[in-house]
Design a protein that fits this description.
Layout lengths: L41 E5 L10 E7 L9 E7 L8 H7 L6 E2 L2 E2 L16 H21 L3 E5 L13 H17 L3 E5 L5 H6 L4 E5 L7 H7 L3 E6 L5 H10 L4 E6 L13 E3 L2
Parallel strand pairs: 1-2, 2-3, 3-6, 6-7, 7-8, 8-9, 9-10
Antiparallel strand pairs: 4-5, 10-11
Length: 275
């Protein structure tokens, strides 16, 4: 979940076998055949639509409905804890029991009202949700992605008390198992306070939003060799970006983007990388 201006909201990544990604990678896990992004690699976050990669970017994140960029290492975005935009009404009709209900109505994310919060509160519901999301993850692998990022782990914080962190972490562990079974790395998305637990259950690296703005980069860097951070120009600001680059912990790759993740030919597009 892309963080809303002035608020902490959550936002996913996929890795395939090293042979499915062009270019060099670091931190590979030979015992599993899973490849990780190169430490310190340039990257871009293209959830607003696919476009040619900026100079120096070899790690590219795109939505699961898009083809991989093929620039070196491709990350596949999957919304694993909330409904997909454009599919929320249909999902709620098909699976009302898998959407958090408040006063008889599906509960939407207040920051993204076209996304409903998935109900992770029981083993049975988590199993059903994993069965729905598993083909999306395996589809990322089939498409040639190297990693998956599963977004909205922190949906429990927007659930009106219906969900707990443990509910979501239990489903997060199942997503890690599915990803690893098909040769993909899996990235933690935001939720810095649970970094240690996520690393313990098998998450391989982190994709973060605004870790400099919210002073969280060190939390991720302590657990992972690779941290890919997106700062937003309407939060951190262009003037503070250079200072954030200079102060970032080792292993943190950082870019500055517009909050809507626009395409390069759209008004308001912003992309800047640390040098």
């Amino acid at each position: 979940m892309r963080r809303m201006p002035g608020a902490i909201a959550s936002a996913l990544l996929l890795l395939v076998l090293a042979g499915c990604a062009a270019g060099s990678v670091a931190g590979d896990r030979p015992e599993t055949g899973i490849a990780l992004p190169e430490v310190g690699a340039g990257f871009d976050y293209q959830l607003g639509g696919a476009y040619p990669t900026p100079d120096g970017a070899t790690v590219i994140a795109r939505d699961r409905t898009e083809a991989p960029a093929g620039a070196g290492y491709d990350i596949c975005y999957v919304n694993g804890f909330q409904t997909q935009r454009g599919d929320s009404s249909a999902f709620a009709r098909r699976h009302p029991e898998l959407v958090v209900q408040v006063d008889g109505e599906p509960l939407a994310d207040p920051g993204w009202p076209d996304e409903l919060i998935l109900d992770t509160s029981t083993d049975a519901k988590r199993t059903a949700l994993a069965e729905i999301v598993e083909p999306w993850i395996t589809g990322c692998a089939d498409a040639g992605y190297a990693a998956v990022e599963i977004d909205n782990l922190d949906s429990f914080s927007r659930s009106d008390g219906k969900l707990s962190a443990d509910d979501n972490l239990a489903l997060a562990a199942e997503y890690a198992r599915i990803a690893h079974d098909v040769g993909l790395a899996i990235a933690q998305k935001n939720t810095a306070e649970y970094t240690t637990r996520l690393a313990e259950i098998g998450y391989d690296f982190a994709v973060t939003e605004s870790c400099a703005e919210f002073d969280e980069c060190a939390d991720y860097a302590e657990a992972y060799d690779v941290v890919l951070d997106i700062e937003y120009v309407d939060e951190l600001g262009a003037d503070a970006f250079a200072e954030a680059c200079a102060d970032r912990p080792e292993g943190v790759s950082m870019i500055l983007r517009d909050h809507d993740l626009r395409m390069p030919d759209e008004d308001g597009y912003m992309f800047r990388a640390c040098t």
